[in-house]
Amino acid sequence: MRRRGDQREDGTTLITMETSPENNYGTMNAVQPEDGNVFSDGSTRVDFVLVWEEPRSMQEESMGVSPAHRRWREEFLKRLRHSGLLQEQKEVLQTKKRICFVLLSAPWSVLCYYAEEISLRVPLQVVTAPIVNWSEQILSKLSLPNLMSQDVPNPPPDYYTCQFRTNKLERFLGSDNKDTFFKTTQRHQVLYEILARTPYGSVKNGEVGVDRLLNEQVFTAAYPLHEGDYQLPTPPVSPQSLSLRQILYAYWAQWSCWRRYQPLDHIREYFGEKIALYFAWLGFYTGWLLPASVVGTVIFLIGFWLVATDVPANELCGSGNSFIMCPLCNICSYWNYSSICVTYKAGLLFDNGGTVFLSVFMSLWAITFLEYWKRTCSSLSHRWDCSEFQDIEERPRPEFTAMAPMTMRNPVTGAEEPYFPENKRFNRTLTGCMVIIIMVAVVLIFLTAIILYRTILSIIIYKSEYSFFSFSAGRIASFSGSVLNLLVILLLSRIYTALAHILTRWEMHRTQTKYEDMFILKVFVFQFVNFYSSPVYIAFFKGRFIGYPGNYNTLFGVRNEDCGAGGCLIDLAQELLVIMVGKQLINNIQEFISPKVKSWWQKRKLNPQLKEAGQEAQRQEEASPWEADYQLLVCEGLFSEYLEMVIQFGFITIFVAACPLAPLFALINNWVEVRLDAQKFVTEYRRPVVERAQDIGIWFPILQFIAHMAVLSNAFLIAFTSSFVPRLYYRYTRDSTLSGFINFTLATSPLSYQQQHNTSCST
Which residues touch 379 (CB under 8 Å, ≥6 apart)? Predict the structure, then answer.
């Protein structure tokens, strides 16, 4: 492999372009406020911060600090110095512990070397083409006001870019100013690359990189700094004087921006392409939910009119004692079919002719949505110079580079690259697949347990002394079973996600994209079964294997459960609403309250601080930027955000025939979700290291799989679970007004059952 300091021969020819000196390339064109992210000399920029905590007193220190941790930390910092990084150490004294901050900065030579090493893109010329939103164009052509538009100050300029080469430095825009040539986010990328690949012990034992040191609690935190405070200054200043973080807070993270376009270019400038693409997809998805929610709500409201005019429903409610039904359990009594009048009508709100149209509409909606997202994503990745990132630019993961057991010559570039044998990776992947199968079996075991729980609980409630509970035994058992199923789903999700992290890291994938794709695939396969197994059971299996009076089928000695009084579709609608809406409520409450509680606890732990006499007055004025950011929460990435939305996408497409209101609930949730996520990234999270991406990764094939499953699922729901086909058959073969349809759907108990019990009943 090429050693640091070697000069790379490069025959690339860069075309000379005209550049204007006023087009300064840096974090933004706007005047940047003083953010205090500098060393004590007042000029050296802080690019990264490492933090650890240790006891103050010698006695506590001997008990609380591991000698191995101290040795690893000292070795790691020494190697960072050897790699050329500048360091400055700061201390904050508290009552019982000392918090040590190591400020890191990369000098120009280090930045140039690693910028070429990791293929950073730098500007050649400013792009002057205007950026227009598609909806903005449509509204403009129709001469309609655009209520979603907002004038966000300091839009980041767009550039023609290419990969950095040291020997072509003078051709790049802004190369005359070494302080601003590399953007702040690019400096963060360089620092993280160095931190992630620097060993602190035996490489063979995996003692490499800052992530391992964080897991071992050698360091308590490692993060780049935010650019100043997010709070708007008082008194107010002109919008052009705001920092990028303040602009994002004022024009994106506030609740008043709920109907505005997201400032995607500003998000990309501050957080990078990967996070910007997530918010672009989330906003695009939320916008497309609007027509789906309108259609679903209209069909649900039409259901009220159908309930009032439905002939079978009126026949049922007026039947009196005409239809005597067989007992629902072994100890239950006979009952009148007319007693379920209200429940039957409620079922018609979800099971009517309109749901057929909605199923077809949502299947077409899902496919069209994905096709238009591909266009939007391609446009964004081209504009942000990421269209060929995965194919050409993406380098091996730093952990893979450090821990790979051998190197191999790349047949394209001729360079020596780290290599992990494919047969070993295949064996490890097979092991991961076996773990998935075992966890899926666990999900099915819990599903069986919940089925038994519903059946047994309904019997227990029926035997109670209260007539109200006895009459509603099946509904109470079904609803409580749905809530219990939601809790089991959330518990198993947490357990398996942690397990999938361990397995994917063990499989040694070469690039970050491949690593994330395999991790996401593992979790999604499990979550697909975890979330959808219960709805699939209710939709296609519940009530199919109950037997008949006198010969009922049993499971572990308990009679198989039947659908509720209103049919299986209303049971499915209830299950979907409990799981989907319940999960959304829990997640939103957790996202709203949990970060604030954690942030309060973090700040409480770090205060009050005992300062030295000479520093006390100075420190009371304002905490340093690295102290302020240390009080924030660790950014947990986008995995949970994507997973939540993809599971939601499955609910509103795969089972939409059973719940027309699902798109409306999803739309309301997503309006809240965008603001909650924006507030977390801007105000509550430490700044994440920028990551490039050309699309949303493996999530898009997963969405395509869900869209295809939705077509099959809705077809089967209409054919086998809904009453649409039986009604259609009866309308064309018996009576076009559906008169007598209720009696047509019932079966009479066999003769042997009538002789044994001296009565006849229907089922």
Answer: none
User: Which H, E and C letters describe 408-428, residue by residue?
Assistant: EECCCCCCEEEECCHHHHHHH
Tokens describing residue 570: 């209303």
Amino acid symbol at 234: T
Q: What is the per-residue pLDDT across 179-192, written as a single tens digit (0 to 9) for each?
A: 889 999 999 999 99
CA–CA distance, 692 with 701 (Å, rounded to integer) = 19
User: How many C-beta atoms surround the C-beta of residue 651 within 10 A?
Assistant: 26
Q: Give the chain's length.
A: 763
H or E element at residue 571: helix 568-576
Encode pLDDT of 235-262 as tens digits: 888 888 899 999 999 999 998 888 889 9
User: What CA–CA distance (Å, rounded) separates 707 from 701?
Assistant: 10
Instruction: Report in angstroms the alpha-carbon separations of 258 from 136, 149, 294, 380, 674.
Output: 17, 11, 19, 22, 8
Nearest to 45 by CA among 126, 111, 134, 93: 111
* 549, amino acid identity: P
Distances (CA, A) of 308 to 344, 409, 631, 698, 711: 12, 75, 59, 47, 30
C-alpha 700, offset from chain centre: 13
Enter the tokens of residue 441: 């079996």
251 close to 152: Cβ distance less than 8 angstroms:
yes
- Cβ contacts of residue 744 below 8 Å, gap of 6+? 726, 730, 734
40 exposure class (CB count in 10 Å sphere: 0-12, 13-18, 19+) = exposed
Alpha carbon of residue 179 to chain centroid: 36
**pTM given for the model:** 0.83
Contact partners, residue 421, CB within 8 Å, separation at least 6: 405, 406
Rounded-to-integer distance, Cα 502 and Cα 504, Å = 6
**Residue-wise pLDDT tens digits, 660-716:** 889 999 999 999 999 999 999 999 999 999 988 888 988 999 999 999 999 898 888
The amino acid sitting at 54 is E
- Please state, in angstroms and rounded to a whole number, the distance separating the CA atoms of residues 397 and 514: 10
Candidates 531, 565, 486; CA nearest to 655 is: 531
Q: Is the dihedral of CA 625, 628, 634, 639 positive or negative?
A: negative
List, in sequence order, every residue forming a beta bridge with 94; answer none if it has no partner. Answer: 609
Measured CA to CA, the distance from residue 763 to residue 752 in angstroms comes to 15
Residue 559 pairs in a beta bridge with 554
Residues 6+ apart with CB under 8 A from 56: 93, 94, 95, 96, 97, 98
Going by C-alpha positions, the residue among 399, 418, 400 that lies closest to residue 408 is 418
Query: For residues 201 and 584, what is the distance between their CA atoms, to the nearest angstrom?
Result: 45
Nearest one of 218, 285, 297, 215 to 50, comparing CA atoms: 218
Cβ(347)–Cβ(569) below 8 Å: yes
Q: Which residue in 286, 344, 270 sits closest to 314, CA to CA?
A: 344
CB of 134 within 8 A of CB of 107?
A: no
